[in-house]
Amino acid sequence: MQTLYQVPDALWNKVATIFEPKVRRRKRSLQVILSGIIYLLQNGCKWRSLPPQYGDYRLVWYYLNKWARYGVLDQALHILGIQLRRRQGRSGEPSMLLIDAQSVKTVAGSGDEVGYDAGKKVKGRKRHLAVDTQGTVMAAGVTSAFVHDKTGARVLRDDVEDRPSVRTIVADGGYEGTPPFTASGRIRWILIARRHTHRFSPLPVRWVVERTFAWIINYRRLAKDYEKTILMSRAMLVMCAIHITLKKLMTYF
Q1: Domains of the chain in sequence order
Q2: pTM, 2 dp
C-alpha cells in the first residue's frame, strides 16, 4: 500500500498558527489539507484523483484558493524564509536578492493571461522569482509568457519593497534599462551580462536562482502550468516554494 505524504508534526507546528489562527474541530485537519496540496504538487495528479485520505478534493482546492486570496501563503513563505535564514546562521531578512523569470507551457483549457514568449518559443505563462543567495524564495509572481521579464518583475515589487533590508538586486541583461522598481533609490540593481557562447554556462551568482527553478520543475504539477487562473497558478508556485523551504528546515531538526 502506498504511503501518502504527511506534513511532519514538527514542521506543522512552525506554520500551524498561520494556516489556522483559531483552532476548532474539523472533519479534516488543516495539516491533512496542507499535506494533500503538497501531494498533488509532487505527483501532478488531477484534483479529482486526489486520494480520499486527504478529504474531498473540492475542500482541498477551496482552502488553497482561500489561502491564496487572503495572503496566507505569502505570510507563510515570509515567516518560513526568516526562520530558515536564522537556522543557517544569517540575519532573518536578506540584503541581496536575485531575480529571474522562466516561461512554462500551459495545457489546453488554461484560462486567463496566456501568451507567447517569442524568445523561448513557449506559449504559456511566465514565473518570476526573487531568491536570496542560498536560493530560498523571497517573492514569487506569475504573468502571461508574452510579458517581458523586466515588465513582469513588477509583480514582485510589493513583496520586495516590503523588505527594508534589501539593498541590492542582481539580474541578467534582460532587465537592462530603467529598473522596474527601486524603492525610491534604496535598491541598487546589478546587471550581469551574458557571454556569447555556444555552450551552456551559468552566469556568476545567478546560477542560484536558476537552480531554484530546477527544484520547482521537479514538482510534476509545475512541469507545466495546469491552472485555469493566474491566482491558482501563483498559489501553486508559492506553495511549492513553501514546501522547499520546509524541507530545508527539516534538516535542522
Answers
A1: 92-226 (3.30.420)
A2: 0.92
